[in-house]
């Protein structure tokens, strides 16, 4: 296979494309915008499918010693979501696992949740097989009539089908909701029907705000995309919940828009990575450009950092002190001040909503759309990523 087949795009983003929705059908033939707009519907459908699965088997055997969520890519992110929504007061460890098989200590006292949008990822299949051999309780989430469903049937384990209508990266909510509801059955999270309904409504509302026909000056996703165009994005989350959203944004910026990106927790960034603001891509680094050079030979807009700060001012219901919130807010204020002093532009997305799940949705929705609009501005098809396909072929996955 030709490694450059299907690779295209413009080095400089064309802002005019984003206010010409008639061109989207041509530039987004796979429908990534449409799939992303279905996030609210994914929440509702997955909740209904989980309700039809025989999750009672989990509850009958009581609380596990630990829960392992096995998967990679977007499927792996579901484990991060569960660990964050469950919070530090969760009565058992919640462990995302992104390698084939399961940790060596997993046994009959534990639960393994294997997640794969396609139902055939080696990581999820290996974990499901290992859980079955070791006598651990198993829950499988993935495409119906897949290899993963076959493993679940052999193990007589609950299987929650996720209809494969979109790439995994556009199916975050379809994969996440079953994981959360399995954990609820085990008594690990307090996610009720009202939380799911409010989360779905939040995703619907953000999809409407970010719709293709909304012009850039009123569309937060288009505005964010235009701000990021030509930059090196740094995305930091102010809390554990916001950090999950930051890493999700890094996933979609890389896959959809093909942008290099730095992501992580703001607390960790303050111990080292904040030094990026002083580096050669920062806003105040003295230019070495020859003032007598021919303007035609000089790059008009050298690449600079662009900071995206995801702020979550909410507290987990289990917390009994405002101190974690105060620390996170002070850090967020400090990094915004630093960025301003260094001449690095900063975009802020602030969480809204009552439950942890709704707040997460409010931090994920606009960035998801922004990654697609950024791809379109560069003339890239956000659905077709030749390198991903080629990588799977080369690795025989």
TrEMBL record:
Pfam families: bact-PGI_C
CDD domains tied to this protein: SIS_PGI_PMI_2
Keywords: Isomerase
InterPro entries, per the entry: Glu6P/Mann6P_isomerase_C (IPR019490), SIS_dom (IPR001347), SIS_dom_sf (IPR046348)
Residue ranges of domain SIS in the record: 54-191
Full protein name: Phospho-glucose isomerase C-terminal SIS domain-containing protein
GO biological process, one term: carbohydrate derivative metabolic process
Cell membrane listed as a keyword: no
Domain of life: Bacteria
MF terms in GO: carbohydrate derivative binding; glucose-6-phosphate isomerase activity; mannose-6-phosphate isomerase activity
Chain positions covered by the region annotation Disordered: 1-29
């Amino acid at each position: 296979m030709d490694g450059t087949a299907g690779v295209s795009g413009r080095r400089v983003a064309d802002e005019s494309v984003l206010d010409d929705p008639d061109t989207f059908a041509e530039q987004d033939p796979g429908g990534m915008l449409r799939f992303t707009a279905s996030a609210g519907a994914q929440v509702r459908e997955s909740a209904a499918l989980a309700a039809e699965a025989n999750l009672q088997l989990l509850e009958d055997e009581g609380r596990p010693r630990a829960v392992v969520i096995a998967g990679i890519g977007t499927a792996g992110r579901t484990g991060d979501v569960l660990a964050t929504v469950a919070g530090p007061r969760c009565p058992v460890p919640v462990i995302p696992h992104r390698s084939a098989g399961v940790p060596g200590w997993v046994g009959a006292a534990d639960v393994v949740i294997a997640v794969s949008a396609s139902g055939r990822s080696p990581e999820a299949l290996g974990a499901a097989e290992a859980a079955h051999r070791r006598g651990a309780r198993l829950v499988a989430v993935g495409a119906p009539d897949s290899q993963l469903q076959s493993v679940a049937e052999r193990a007589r384990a609950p299987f929650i089908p996720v209809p494969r209508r979109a790439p995994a990266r556009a199916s975050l909510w379809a994969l996440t909701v079953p994981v959360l509801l399995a954990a609820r059955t085990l008594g690990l999270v307090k996610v009720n029907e009202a939380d799911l309904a409010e989360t779905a409504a939040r995703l619907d509302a953000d999809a409407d705000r970010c719709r293709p026909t909304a012009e850039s000056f009123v569309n937060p996703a288009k505005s964010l995309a235009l701000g990021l165009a030509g930059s090196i994005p740094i995305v930091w989350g102010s809390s554990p919940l916001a950090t999950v959203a930051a890493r999700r944004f890094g996933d979609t910026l890389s896959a959809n828009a093909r942008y290099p990106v730095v992501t992580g927790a703001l607390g960790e960034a303050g111990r080292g990575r904040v030094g990026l603001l002083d580096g050669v891509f920062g806003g105040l680094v003295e230019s070495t450009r020859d003032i007598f050079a021919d303007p035609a030979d000089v790059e008009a807009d050298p690449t600079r950092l662009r900071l995206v700060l995801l702020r979550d001012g909410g507290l987990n219901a289990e917390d009994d002190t405002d101190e974690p919130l105060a620390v996170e807010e002070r850090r967020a204020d400090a990094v915004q001040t630093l960025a301003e002093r260094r001449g690095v532009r900063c975009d802020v997305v602030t969480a809204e909503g009552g439950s942890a799940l709704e707040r997460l949705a409010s931090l994920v929705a606009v960035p998801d759309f922004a990654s697609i609009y950024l791809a379109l501005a560069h003339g890239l098809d956000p659905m077709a990523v030749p390198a991903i396909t080629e990588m799977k072929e080369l690795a025989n996955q």
